[in-house]
Amino acid sequence: MAVLSALSVNGDRLMGWIDRLAKIGRLANGDICRLAFTAEDVQARYLVQQWMMEAGMTVRTDAGGNIIGTYAGLREAPALATGSHIDTVPSGGAYDGVLGVLAGIEVVRTLHENHLRLQHPLEVIVFTDEESSMVGARSMAGVVPRSPTELKLREGLAIESSLETLGGNWDTIGTAQRTHDHIAAFVELHVEQGAVLEHVGKAVGVVQGIVGMRRSKITILGQANHAGTTPMDLRQDALVAAAQVVLAVREIALGMPGSPVATVGSLTVLPNAANIVPGTVDLTVDMRDLSQACIDTMQERLERELRAIATATDTQISSEPLLNVAPSPATPQVQAAITQVCQHLGLSHYEMPSRAGHDAMEMGYITDMGMIFVPSQSGLSHSGHEYTAPKQCIQGANVLLHTIFRLDEIYS
Amino acid sequence: MAVLSALSVNGDRLMGWIDRLAKIGRLANGDICRLAFTAEDVQARYLVQQWMMEAGMTVRTDAGGNIIGTYAGLREAPALATGSHIDTVPSGGAYDGVLGVLAGIEVVRTLHENHLRLQHPLEVIVFTDEESSMVGARSMAGVVPRSPTELKLREGLAIESSLETLGGNWDTIGTAQRTHDHIAAFVELHVEQGAVLEHVGKAVGVVQGIVGMRRSKITILGQANHAGTTPMDLRQDALVAAAQVVLAVREIALGMPGSPVATVGSLTVLPNAANIVPGTVDLTVDMRDLSQACIDTMQERLERELRAIATATDTQISSEPLLNVAPSPATPQVQAAITQVCQHLGLSHYEMPSRAGHDAMEMGYITDMGMIFVPSQSGLSHSGHEYTAPKQCIQGANVLLHTIFRLDEIYS
């Protein structure tokens, strides 16, 4: 470690690549629209493949459309892997996903320029469609739903032709699956997309894992009625019940140890007229935490609250699961490696969960996994205003470089 | 009173008229759509005019499009007046408005058949567009807003051509205005459109007045944010603030003496996605009571609550008035006349406010006013399921008949 700690990535080159990729899909308002499977996605992939090859990697595309760049190791061994995605949401930013991919390539290029090889092969992976179907990471983890509706592909797309556009193949998607035998550990560098690091004033987030999520649709049936003629005590006001649910959801999260989050993000009132007591409300509850036990306890409390609120407001409340995603804890020794590297490089660091989904979540189901976060200015993401300063991006890339060195030792 | 108490209306004829009118605008699903100014409205007016003339009335239409049938009295004196409306909401019922108009005509027809004349002329009025602009009753009360936007006419209509369709005239609308010198007292029979009479098991409602209304639009500005990455304590959740407003509005009404009502009927969330902390909520608050002081107190409490909620939730809350309608109290001696008649006819009765708007509200601004309610089954109105039993309709018409006799004595 002593010798290699002097090594660092070429920060100017990394930032140049980030700027170059940001031009592809840039809209007039500064947002970046580089949706998976579009011409912009293909153009960005083409460029990234060039950079991979220039860095000394061999490049292939698997059946899930994932680009896998491999930098050969000294030994026949399972690979170490890093990577992320280069597709964006419809109004995305320049760093989300992109930083992880390009920092990975820069790490390899740095090794290559310094005539260094690891014991393990090192893979840099560009995962397919992280922002919508996550079909790339899912195919690698072997958890692709076979039904296109469960796949949550962007509307109007067919999975067969979409994958074909990227050189993937839906019919042989099973061949994309990897296991712990192929990949010894996966580590992803990503912008935080939240304001925690900025808030605590730390340079690097050591991710404890990716939170699980339980999302439900709640339907409250009251009785629509004249807002003038219906006395308060004869009402079955679905919105009064919904208001109690909104506040209960918040209280449930605040009442738990750790720092789970719970959100009512969507709420629709029927008939939604000023002079009619609301008859029906539909709302969503989204609860996330690193601990499955915490999520389960919040769900139990929610169900208890829903029963009490239904009784108190003379309404009928039903609940329907929408999503149920298990937490993906980061592997303790990968976390420890990242922490040691930060200490070594003199960078302040902070242990935190990732509360957004990432490709690493799926990878965590099949192999050892860790994530490195760098700060997002004001916590903004999924916006052209997304920003992480060059210094912070480069610090993240250097943490990734040295973490890979550490993992190369640990998994020897 | 002793002699006349034997007199009663022809219930079969009244119910026959109600059934006949219900055929005009009846939809396949049983609802009635007889919007003001439409061919259906004109057809119904044509029929009602025929019935007025057959009952011995002279008929005219004023500049507000109101049909005024007059049954001459024995003396030159201000008229006694009754009436209501025959237009419906888009999915209306057979009784709302119609009962008051047709019972008025039936009262006159009963007098006519029995060769009876009052001291006062007796007018039966069909008011124009009660369900939307109330332009008929407003023109008679001399409170027509001159700006078409304030008139709240149904979308797509022009007031000039609309009134012309019914024989009215926007240019001379001022001529429709009446005063206490023209009309000594106005009494309106109407279905309750609420479930209070059914709930207390009474045959007749003696209306204490028509409640005033204060309606506001509240806008709550928080900060839309990622529902996963934004910690609970860093959120500015507009929906959490809105939920507190919804519950505060209910508590404000419940905490007042009397039985005011207060409703959040409409609430819209932006961006309204399951995975985004709500950034903006728009909602309406509608507060009604018979007492202006009560409404004012509720408004003050609301404003205080909004300030407290904004502070507690780190949001900005603004409020904009939408409607401000003064209560229209019923005249005590008209209320007393209705009560005495109920006692005389052996009908159970109940003093109650009208919590819906009516033509009588506007009439109350210019002359002595009272209203008679009969029960609405399950409180349903503005629906094809609206129902008041024949017995209840006929009881209402008989209370109207004898109340007019009483008023004829009182105002002599």
Description:
Two copies of one chain form a homodimer. Chain A has eleven helices and 16 strands. The longest helix of chain A has 22 residues, at 292-313. In chain A, strands 1, 2, 3, 4, 5, 6, 14, 15 and 16 form a nine-stranded mixed β-sheet that branches. Chain A is 34% helix and 22% strand. The model of chain A has no long low-confidence stretch (mean pLDDT 95). Chain A folds into two domains: 4-210 and 327-410, 3-Layer(aba) Sandwich (Aminopeptidase); 212-325, Alpha-Beta Plaits (2-Layer Sandwich), CATH 3.30.70.360. With 412 residues, chain A is an alpha+beta fold. Chains A and B meet through β8, α7, β9, β10 and β11 of A and β8, α8, β9, β10 and β11 of B.
- Poorly predicted ranges of chain A: none
Multimeric status of the protein: homodimer
- Characterize the main sheet of chain A: 9 strands, mixed
On the 0-100 scale, what is the average pLDDT of chain A?
A: 95
Strand count of chain A: 16
Query: Regarding CATH, which class of the largest domain in chain A?
Result: Alpha Beta
Q: Report the β-strand fraction of chain A as a percent range.
A: 15-25%
CATH superfamily of the largest domain in chain A: Zn peptidases
Provide the structure class of chain A: alpha+beta
CATH topology of the largest domain in chain A: Aminopeptidase
